[in-house]
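Lay summary

Proteins are chains of building blocks that fold into shapes. Our project writes down both the chain and a compact code for its shape. Here are two examples, one after the other.
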Amino acid sequence: MGLNTAVLCVQGEDEAWMLRALAGWEPTGHVVPADLVGAALQAGPAVGTTGGWTFVIDPGLGLAFDPVNAALASRGGRGIAAVWQSATDTHAFDVYEDGLRTRGQVRMAGTLIVDDGSPIPEEEGLAWDDDAEEALARLVSRVSGIDLLGRDFLEVPVHPLRRRPTLR
């Protein structure tokens, strides 16, 4: 697939809560389909909701996979942060329960580099060695119910974000 993006998915459909966790970011006021995030028209992160979950798609990788953002956003529920970085063949995820990181893995070029916490049931049967990109997308789907590989997800409306201006 050649993905270069990160996602953060947390229980509950509450974009305002997510934006409070992502201090320093605000909506641009536009709405685009999820499949345009990362394209030239919408190169920055975006927030949306679907199926009882709120998510951030982040082609810049750092915002959605930041452990502080993920911990704050997942307070009061479950969350999963995932990153796909094709240039270095890196695939990683962290699972959060009520704001605490309970599980995490990092794979580089097929080698498991970090393996923290106990495996979660949703990991069972994933084909990491065959296709790590797809395995990670399937894990996100199993945890959140959001099918990142499905056509329905690509059409979900999202709100692009921009850095909030700071006073000087």
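And here is the second example, written the same way.
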Amino acid sequence: MKTRQITLRPGADADRESVTRIFDMANPSWATSAAHWRQLAAARTEPANGIVIVAEDHGRMVGAARANEALEGLLPQPGTFSARVAVDPGAAGDGVGSVLWRAASDWISEQSPTQINSWCDRDDERTIAIAAHWAFERRNESLETPEDLDPDQPWAWNYELRLDSRSHANTEDVPALPPNVTVSPLGEVMDDADLAASLHEGYEECRADVPAWEPYKPRRRSDFLKNQHDRLQHGGLGLVAHRNRDVVAATFAERAAFVPMIHNDFTMVRRNARGQRLALGLKRQLIRDAASCGLERITTEVRTDNGPMLAINARLGFRRIAMRQLTRTPAIAIG
């Protein structure tokens, strides 16, 4: 174990970016998108009853803790608190997390809590073990496997693909797109008024077809185009397939703010072009482009009733990931 001189201090507003970066580095599968980060930076207000604790080693931030009174919507849940700790991966195993958990627990204890909640990646065995040490248990309502779901109700799972040599192997035998289909980067399409209009038309058609929690509300073309320009400005990606100047398919991805990854938030194929493996081919190209840019992972979200996209993700090697919801009764003594 490396000898460290860990000091703790309350977090300040100036630490917001560094603290978010620490949490995203520790949990890259759930990282903050660049677009969302800019929204938070512009409008975020901290919980009225909460604290951020920063751990430093010789002045360099190596970990952070967040604790606050939990919210249900925008209303506090009196007596219920949320707490999370994140450690820079380079400082893992050096006791930083234990120091932060102790400080966060001490602060919460002063608030007379009735319940403390947290979460972690269900496949993160190290964090699960640490949570168990601090007397956290899996909440009964934690949804982590298909067996946890109501079979009559759809659910949206998160998926992840790590961009290593294996991910390239998974795409080697994926059929190429038809020769009469041209694939262009989103930026080039946005510079072509006719293709941009066709992309918006296709997007509206496909959004209406995708299983969703609420009926889709059409977007004005100007709003759609602004959203795509913002995506590109924030480092996002997009690929658009078109034939004879008509868009037939596309896939879009948001860039994470602080870690080398993207979130593939929508893939579409026009009704008159389905059954030609266009979505599979586009996502295959997205994977290769992301890897060539030095990105390390792609995440996405798919509902359980979207069979075609579930099959595509499985074909490309995406694995299902989930959060484990944790809870702890404050009266339990911690050794």
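What can we say about the second shape? The chain has a mean pLDDT of 90.
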